[in-house]
Amino acid sequence: MMASNIVDFELGAGTDRAVRRALANLERRQGEDGAWAGAYGGPMFLLPMYLALCHAAKRPPSETQRARIIAYFERAQNEDGSVGVHAEDTHGSLFCSVLAYVALRMLEVPKDDARVRRMLAFIHRHGSPLAAAQWAKVTLSLVGLYRWDGLTPLLPELWLLPYAATPFHPARLWCHCRQVYLPMSWLYGRRARIDDDELIRALRDELYDGAWSSIDWSAHRDTVAQVDAYRPPSRLLALANAAQRAVERITPDRVRAMALGKVREHIAYEDEVTNFIDIGPVNKVLNAFVAFFDDPKSEAFERAFATCESYLFDNELGTMMQGYNSSKLWDVAFATQAIVATPLGDEHRTMLERAYGYVRDNQILDDVPRRKRFYRDASRGGWPFSNRAHGWPITDCTAEGLKCALALEGRFAPRIPEPLLRDAVMLILDWQNDDGGWATYEKRRGGAWLEKLNPSQVFGDIMVDYSYVECTSACMQALRASLPRFGRRLAARARRAIAKGERFLRNAQRPDGSFEGSWGVCFTYGTWFGVTGLLAAGVPTSDRAIRSACDFLLAYQRSDGGWGEEGDSCRERRYIPSDTAGVVQTSWALSTLVRAQHPNRQAKARAAKLLVDRQESDGSWAREPLVGVFNKTCLIDYDNYRHYFPLWALSEFAREERAR
Length: 660
What we know:
By secondary structure, this protein is mainly α.
């Protein structure tokens, strides 16, 4: 018994030291604006699209940027010469390898460089750009390295159809999807292409092995290499494409002009209401291409090109293009909750005050103008993923922002006005889907059958804004926190919404007890949210759903006490253990077990010990493999996760131990 007490004491003391050092690390890293800047990179198709724009506009990156971008590509290149969909993807993607090759050549890397020679060999082995996924073909068409005739239709005329009577109207798509295909349809409709130059002519010979002039482009509309065929075209998509080609052949020029005008109006609107940041980097670059081809000397193009810079980020890996203009609000919300979970918040009052200030100053204050005309939902009271200027509120970001606002309410001035807090609650309530869950940006607008029209080939679940375990859990937690705050009528509505959310989560739980994550890797992440959401609904820890979720996690605990899950778990939709444990995934699992009050104290202590032992001397944790994901196939870097999730989990573990 004495030896056990000594072990307990040493772990307790070690946990306390780790928490203090982690808090000091967070305080050092916090910016003057109250946020934590961090990498949100990973996708390997973003930089090439931006560099294609730079080439079209004859505005190459600076020499420093050029060197740092090349370094980033070099780190991501696989032994076989390929580049994957994301920076750690060893599968090899023709889509991203083609774009990376063009990008490196545009960065003046010579064709006899060993890196590009190996990359070109991979491209030729897998069928040349003729077999690349659609997004590659669109980008190449813009710079004269592919022909629009070799693409399946992207008809702008679809935007002329009546929304109410058209189940496949583009406005029914997930907002990220529709904001990408919106400018694509304008560029396709215009057959936009830059003038040939010496490099473009050379690249044609290199990419197509000298066969450019003899290619039958229309024969390759549906050609896709196996390495890019995560979602190969469905029979319904083939029929839809055939119908679109038939419609395009008989569409009068005046109708095409009318459609292009309407699409251009929607693009200009998106630029205007997001301060030209746009919803994401693909949409950002494509909108900038539209402005360029519309008028390269216009103020719209100058603003569009300049704001592309907001997506660039430089760190020890090189210069990358991020999946958003930042992840600041998301990181602030989680870091704040991690700090509040410790008993040491008063010792870090300045850090908390700055974080609260960021949450307060980046809540969205107004709905966008003319929102119904442009298919936008309400925004007032919501929180975005990054900052207020971006302007798109998200369900779970709003939920996490609201949780922070309520947790810190009254501690700092100026405070968030009560009407705005109420607006946040109302937004969350109004966002709930009929199935009881919450999607990302909007209520679901289209049927699941629309996924059969997914033209991307490399991404899954992009067509509809589905209900997700993570978004549902976050919204349920926020509504639970708001119950004592806004009166009986609103509380009653919130309780009904939470009950519907509970039913969604129970239906989403898999037979093995796990919950599948969609925005993190994967079952570790989803199960953390699933269990926390059920607890927010008032489900007792003895409930079978919670116990089976914990049993699932414990079945995958490693001998060193941690958890490690491969990113391919998302692609294959099954738990795939990694070779080593990760501190972030271990933190999610430990937090789940603590919140569920699981009786296996030894399992939790082993996990906590791994987190303590892995901590660096400066209070941080080392960089690890990517643990974020979107659309099943593309991992993404949430670099700040390693700085606050271990702190949060250790704080919860220490609190449970103190209560023993």
